[in-house]
Amino acid sequence: MSTTKERRRRLHRPFVLSFIGICYITSPIFNVLFNSILYNDELRNAFYRYDNTAVLLLLITPIVGLGIIQVRPWGWYSFVLHSLAMLAYNVYNVFNSGNTYNYVIFYNSVLLLGFCAYFLRREISAPYFADEERGFRRSARQLIEKNVVINGHQLKTLDLSDRGLLAHWPNCDLSPGNEVHILIEGDQPRRGGIVRISEDKVGVAFRAGAPVQQEYEFQSIE
């Protein structure tokens, strides 16, 4: 039971990512409402204040939000392309419009840049292109080479964090989801699970629970 909960927790989307997706899905509604209040106009008339480019960008926005929440490659690409188009459109309006609405455009641009900075981080973008559900990394990995024994195989870590490791493991005979016993040099034995296999590299997530009995030992540590 604890292993299942740990796996589900690891695969859970970060709150900020869900927040961005929801903002994109609901933004057309709030955008039209804001314009209606700003210009003291009826809701149906506020929509006609948008030019064709703005209407197109507005209609695409909820689709981008769905791609973000579903964690799909097309969602990542659509977010990047849509963000660039929105930034270009906002910058154009800032330099070609002389009303107070410029402040709102500037605010939207800053918020969009913040979303982009978060979304383009490697630990956030990587799961969008994974072949399997590898989850979102919650701890920074450090490039540390250590001896490690995984199910009796003597390997070397490529990076290591308090939640998992990446090891050089050519011809790994396991599959994502398989449970493993781990013994890291200078550490206590623990349980883990395979989360991804890429060429000669294997990603392992540590599992919660009591320490396991040491079943494997290093034959030699260089």
Description of the structure:
There is one protein chain. The chain contains 7 helices and 6 strands. It folds into 2 domains: 2-129, no CATH class; 147-206, Thrombin, subunit H. A hairpin with a 2-residue loop joins strand 1 and strand 2. The protein is 47% helix and 17% strand. The protein has helices spanning 2-11, 15-38, 43-46, 52-70, 73-96, 101-119, 122-125, and strands at 147-150, 153-160, 164-168, 179-184, 190-198, 201-206. The chain is α+β, with helices and mostly antiparallel strands.
The first-to-last residue Cα distance is: 38 Å
How do the strands of the widest beta sheet line up side by side?
1-2-3-6-5-4
The secondary-structure element order is HHHHHHHEEEEEE
**Unreliable parts:** 1-11
Q: What is the molecular shape?
A: elongated
Structural class: alpha+beta
Brief overview:
The chain is an alpha+beta fold.
Properties at a glance:
Thrombin, subunit H; disordered N terminus; 2 domains; 222 residues; 6-stranded antiparallel beta barrel; alpha+beta; 6 strands
Q: How are the SSEs placed, and which strands pair?
A:
Blueprint: H1 2-11, H2 15-38, H3 43-46, H4 52-70, H5 73-96, H6 101-119, H7 122-125, E1 147-150, E2 153-160, E3 164-168, E4 179-184, E5 190-198, E6 201-206
Antiparallel strand pairs: 1-2, 1-4, 2-3, 3-6, 4-5, 5-6
Helix pairs in contact: 2-4, 4-5, 5-6
